Amino acid sequence: MENTNIIIVDDHKIFRDGLIMLLSNFNFVTVVGEAANGEEFLELIKDVEPDIVLMDINMPKMNGIEATKHALKKYPELKVIALTSFADDEYIEQMISAGVEGYMLKRSDIEDFEEAIKKVADGGSYFSAEIIKVISRNLYKDKERKSGEQLLDKFTSREKEILNLICKGLNNEQIAELIHLSPKTVEKHKSNLFQKTETFNTVNLVIYAFKNQLISL
Q1: N or C: which end of the chain has fewer CB within 10 A?
Q2: Total number of domains constituting the chain
Q3: What pLDDT digit, counting tens, does each position of 85-107 carry?
């Protein structure tokens, strides 16, 4: 795959150094900058053009939520993967609303970081299994929510197939190749999924699917 330029934003230097060392194992990744908080990051990004930002949430001066909102407003093509120490309900929905393409725990294995970066760089999304469990758990807070089986009735078999592949982090081209359709046709099915689920982007569609148990982990 093509080289992926990355900025690391975290207020703990020892974690940044460790992550830089971890990412040095990947020949497709170049760390082009690091910042200790959201303010530093927004200054840095004026001079550096990353493909992906690995963004901590809790930081002084400006947290990851605000930094992500500001950055994506100015640089909409930027992709952000949120990093967190704990799978905390409070922050997950805020970061997803801010526009992140991925969400993972800092203690994730090296293979998880590799998979996350590759999927997000290719236009897909990535969520740690622990994060997905927290999102799914919120389902039970709403007693009136329809069961996943009932909700699935409104999708065609092809839409269900594509939804499952989207939730695995595949992009349009990968899905098209796998199920022998054109990328344009996949995009059409994806648009129908957005309309039927009342979501507006891939990440929100994935969250909807997990929350409503439309697919299994």
Answers
A1: C
A2: 2
A3: 876 666 777 787 788 888 888 88
83 with 42, same domain: the answer is yes
In a domain, 216, yes or no: no
Closest CA to 50 of 70, 34, 66, 26: 34
Q: Are 63 and 83 in contact (CB under 8 A)?
A: no
Strands of 4-9's sheet, edge to edge?
A: 29-35, 4-9, 52-56, 79-84, 102-105, 126-127
The enclosing domain of 204 has a CATH number of: 1.10.10.10
14 and 116 assigned to the same domain: yes
* Last residue of one domain, picked from the residues 136, 168, 195: 136
User: The tokens of 69 are what?
Assistant: 């909102």
Segments forming the whole domain that contains residue 101: 4-136
| Pair 191, 162: CB distance under 8 Å | no
Mean predicted confidence (pLDDT) in 159-186 = 87
Q: Which pair of tokens denotes residue 121?
A: 């760089």
What are residue 8's DSSP bridge partners?
34, 54
Reported pTM = 0.73
Last residue of a domain, one of 106, 136, 166: 136
Side-chain-side CA neighbours of residue 53 (13 Å): 32
Q: How far apart are CA 167 and CA 201, in angstroms?
A: 12
Helices (H), 168-214: 172-179, 183-197, 202-211
Name 86's Cβ contacts closer than 8 Å, sequence gap at least 6: 105
